[in-house]
Amino acid sequence: MRITRWVAVVAAAAVVAGLTATGAATAAVGQQTRGVDGKTIKVAGLGYAAFYSTSEVGAQGRFAAANEEGINGYTIDFELGLVDDKSDPNTNLQEARRLVQQEQVFALVPTITPILQAAEFLNQQKVPTVGWGISAGFCAEDNEYVFGFTGCLTPPQPVKFAGNTWGSLIDSLLDTRGEGGAKGKTAVVITDDSESGKSGFVVIGATAKAVGMKVLDYGDGIFPAAGTGTVGDYTPFVNDVMSADNGEPPDVVFLTVAFDIAGGFTEALLDAGYEGVLTNPTGYAPGVFEATFEGSTVFTQFATPESAEESGNENMQEIVDEILAVDPDASIGQGHLAGWYSADFFVKVVEKATKGGKELTEAGFQKAASKFTYAIPDTVGPTKYPRGFSASTPCGQLVESDGEQYDVVTEFGCFNLLQAKKNGTFKEVDY
Question: How far apart (Å, rounded) are the C-alpha atoms in residues 423 and 431?
């Protein structure tokens, strides 16, 4: 679908305030908001294309629908699409600078990368940035302009809040399977050697403990961080897991590592005969990796197309239709959906910021977004700001691969937050 372009002519009127004895004159010139040309808003995406290139298609679908409807008279120019940062900190900052200073974009949407090195620059330059908060850049203490559609997922140490979501979903799954829920079960949390991995170890451990699991002293930071290395032999890691519970395997393995390592380790662990619940947040990739993640469950922070097919989720069906309007052959995965949700968050904040004929400005967008709740019933959210600057949205679902397709095994639901106490434990609080 072709995006409508609006062309605006900005006239500068010089007002002569009477010549003084020295011949001086003054003139006033209107100031234009960067990236807003009349009623056209110029945006670009920034992300790790190797994993999230499909987020461009998701965003295109949402922006095209928004342009047809109109956003209080505004339309979106997304011609630049998603710019690849290669998951490299220097490239991330360089491309962000180029897009803002040379391309003069108003906002970076969608922003989906494990390393948002440009977060400080984007806040300093007051660049509205919306994406999936998988990087610590979405959780900076002085963050004002960087928003995650599911909040801050990788908070800095010490972790103040954790969502009691993944553990609650596993609890429901085990109960559904007649295993009496999660209470009393043993678990291992496996992360990678990164700051987000260290935070993840705390956050995931907290939700497992909150539903009654015993988290075994297996350790963290065992796998290379995304983009820093590969694993040639999974045998030592598999052997450690299979004997983690006094020589026996644990009941549940939470695996949150780089996508390629998650796939390799999943196959190796299941080949070794692991029969418990193996769960990860990255292995949902329809049409691509069903076989790789066969026998494992995937935690997604939002509903997926299966919920439209299996549960009649009409909101998800509309999302699917908008994405397929751009790419009819798409096997819609987390990249597509993260791009769509990011764009939808942005569109709704623009609507709020320009309500009543207000002109769109960076400050106006920030003011609207910082007190905004993003939600689509039974699908995503609610993500509440300003809470989202420091905490993730405690919502999600579980899907499972049978080798050929994914099925929803625990429906989308929302739970409470876990707040850290001084002794290092967590208490459950309302979100």
Answer: 21
Radius of gyration of the chain (CA): 23
Give the list of residues 6+ apart from residue 281 with CB closer than 8 angstroms, or none: 166, 256, 298, 299, 300, 301
Q: How does residue 2 score in pLDDT terms, banded at 50, 70 and 90?
A: very low
Burial 278-293 (b: 16+ CB within 10 A, else e): bbbbbbbbbeebbebb
Q: What's the pLDDT at 151?
A: 96
Q: Please give the order of strands across the beta sheet that includes 277-280.
A: 214-215, 186-190, 252-255, 277-280, 297-300, 395-401, 406-414
CB 389 within 8 A of CB 143: yes
User: Of 237-251, 355-369, 376-390, 416-430, which range is least confident?
Assistant: 416-430
The amino acid at 222: I
Q: Which residues contact 112 (CB under 8 A, 6 or more apart)?
A: 45, 47, 48, 52, 55, 131, 132, 134, 335, 338, 339, 342
For 86-141, the pLDDT digits (tens) are 999 999 999 999 999 999 999 999 999 989 999 999 999 999 999 999 998 999 88
Global confidence as pTM: 0.88
For the stretch 332-351, pLDDT in tens is 999 999 999 999 999 999 99
Tell me which amino acid residue 211 is: V
Position of tokens 């047809």? 68
Q: How far apart are CA 146 and CA 210, in angstroms?
A: 30
pLDDT tens-digit series, residues 261-295: 899 999 999 999 999 999 999 899 999 889 999 99
pLDDT at 26: 32
Tell me how far apart the alpha carbons of residues 119 and 143 are, in angstroms, rounded to a whole number.
8
